Amino acid sequence: MQIKLKLHNTLTGKKEIFEPLNPTHVGMYVCGPTVYGEAHLGHARSAIVFDVIFRYLQFLDYKVRYVRNITDVGHLEQDADEGEDKIAKKARLQQLEPMEVAQHYTDAYHRDMELLNVKKPGIEPRATGHILEQIELIEKIINNGFAYEVNGSVYFDVEKYNEHKPYGLLSGRKIEDLQSGTRELAGQSEKRSALDFALWKKAAPEHIMRWRSPWSVGFPGWHLECSAMSAKYLGEQFDIHGGGMDLMFPHHECEIAQCEAGNNASPARYWLHNNMITINGQKMGKSLGNFITLQELFSGNHQLLEQAYSPMTVRFFILQAHYRSTLDFGNEALQAAQKGYKKLINALRILKEFNYEEQSENIDEKNTQQINQICDNCFHAINDDFNTARLVAQLFNLVKKINSIHVHQIALHSIENATFNRMKELFTRFTEDVLGLKEEESFDGKALINALLEFYKEAKAEKDYETVDAVRAKLKQQGIVVKDMKTGIDWAYEE
Could you give the percent of the chain with pLDDT greater than 90? Predict the structure, then answer.
C-alpha cells in the first residue's frame, strides 16, 4: 500500500502531506529540557511524542538527524528578560557550581528517558557549548537592522521586524493585540517596547554565568539558543521543529523572528506541538500540590498516587491519546493503562511463540481479509498525524485475533501464510519499534528461586528424587546451584 504521511502543521493550522526537503533524509529539532529540576509528566509526554515520530520516520526508512537541545543557561525566572537564571539560582541555594546543577539534572533526565525507552537523539547540544554561534547570530540580526544595543544588552526589535514580516504567525497573534495587552513601564525598562525580547543580557555583578561578547560580559537570551543550534546542525531551513504547546508563544514565535531576521529564512517547514497534561482536570503546578515527578510516579511516593506505575505503563498511558489533545492524568486512567499495556505485551509474547503450520487448503477467507484490513488500518492511523490513539485501537483488534488463534477459536493454519507473517511483523514492529513498548520483568527472580527450593524441599522429603533432580537441572541451566546443607537448603551462583 502507498504510504502518505499527513501531519498537522501548526504554522498553517492544516494537515499537510509530509514532503521533506531531501527525499531520503529528515532534519528534526525538538526543544529539550531546562535542567534545573527533576523531569515530570510534561517532560515525559513531549519526549515520548517526538520519540514516536522519530521512530516512525526511521520505520519509513528515512535517515533522520534528530537534534534535541539541553537548556543550561539563559532561562530566567518567569521566562522573562529580567530576574535570576534558574540554574544559577539553584546553584547559589545549594552552594554548587551552576554546571554541577545542570549536569545532575541532565543525568537524571537521561535516566528517566532510558526507563521510558525514549531513544537518544543523534545530537544533544547544550546552550553553554554554543555561545559563539549565538553571538554570531546576534551580530547578523543587528547588521540587518532588527536589534539594538542598550547599556551592554541587546534586544530584538519586534515592531521593526513586523514591518517586514508578520510577528505571531505560529500562535495566531497579531502585534496590535499584543501591544494593547502590554503596559509600558516608562523609565523602568531599557527596551523600546514591551514586546521586544533579549538576545543578550549584560550580567549584573552577582550573576554567576557570564561570557565575553562585543557588547558586554553577559549571557544569551533563552530564545536564541535553539535558532543558533538548529542552524548549525540542520541548516538554516530544515523539516520538523517540535515542542510542547506551552513553547509556541513566545519561544517558538521568537525563534522564527530571529531566523528570519538573521538568516532570511523561516527555520522549519513543519511545526508540531504536543498538548499539555492535566491532573484531575487541573494544570500541573507546584502551588496546586499536583506536581508529580517521574521518579515519584515510578515509586508511588506522592500523595495523589494510589500505587507505583511502571515506566512502560506511563508510556502506554501517554500513547493512548493523540499528541495534540489534552491528556488528563488520574489513578483510574493509569490503572486502565497498566491493564492495557499488559494485554498488549501478553499478545506480543504469544504471537512470537506461534509456529506456523503447513498452510491448509481450507483458508478462512473472512479472517484473512479482516486481518489484512486491520493491518491497513494501522498504517492509516499512524499516517494520520501520528495518531497513536487510533493505532493502539487497531493493535487491540489484532490482539483479539491473536488470542482467538491461541485458544484455537481460529485455526492458525486457516490463515494465509502471507497474512499471518504480515500480522506478526507489523504487530511486533508497531508495538516495539514505533510505539517503543517493551516487556517489563515484574517478578522477583530471587523469590522465584526460593519458591522452587520449597518445591525441591518437599520433593526431597517425599523421596521424589526424579523431581529433585529435575529442579536441580533446571536451576543449573540458569546458573544456580542447589546446596544441601546441615542447616537447610540454600543456593548459590554457579562459579
Answer: 72
Average predicted confidence (pLDDT) for the chain:
92
Do 240 and 328 belong to one domain? no
Strands (E), 53-98: 63-68
- Kindly state whether residues 262 and 396 are assigned to the same domain: no
Residue 155: enclosing H or E segment and its boundaries?
strand 153-156
Helix, coil or strand: residue 57? helix
- DSSP letters, 395-422, are HHHHHHHHHHHHTTSS-GGGS-HHHHHH
Q: Per-residue pLDDT for 291 more than 70?
A: yes
Those residues whose C-beta lies under 8 Å from the C-beta of residue 47, and which sit 6 or more positions away, are 113, 116, 118
- 241 and 283 part of one domain: no
Give the model confidence (pLDDT) of 451-489 as tens digits.
888 888 888 889 888 888 888 988 888 888 888 877 788
Q: Looking at residue 80, what is its pLDDT?
A: 67
Structural domain includes residue 30: yes
Grid coordinates representing 200 are 543578550
Tell whether 181 and 53 lie within a shared domain: yes
What integer pLDDT is reported at residue 1 of this predicted model?
58
Task: Locate all alpha helices (DSSP H) within 116-223, ordered by sequence.
Answer: 131-143, 158-162, 175-180
Q: In terms of residue numbers, what domain contains 483?
A: 445-493
Chain centroid to CA 187:
44
Out of 434, 460, 475, a domain closes at: 434
Query: C-alpha cell of 119?
Result: 531513544
* β-strands 197-202, 217-220 pairing: antiparallel
Number of domains in the chain: 3
Q: What is the pLDDT of residues 199-230, one digit of tens each?
A: 999 999 888 899 999 999 999 998 999 999 99
Same domain, 263 and 333: no
Helices and strands (H and E) in the chain: how many: 16, 16
Alpha-carbon gap, residue 59 to 53, rounded angstroms: 10
Helix (H, G, I), strand (E, B) or coil at 307: coil
The pLDDT score that the predictor gives to residue 186 is 46
Please state, in angstroms and as integers, the Cα–Cα distance from residue 483 to each residue in 164, 317, 385, 491, following that order: 82, 45, 59, 5
Q: Considering the entire predicted model, what is its pTM?
A: 0.91
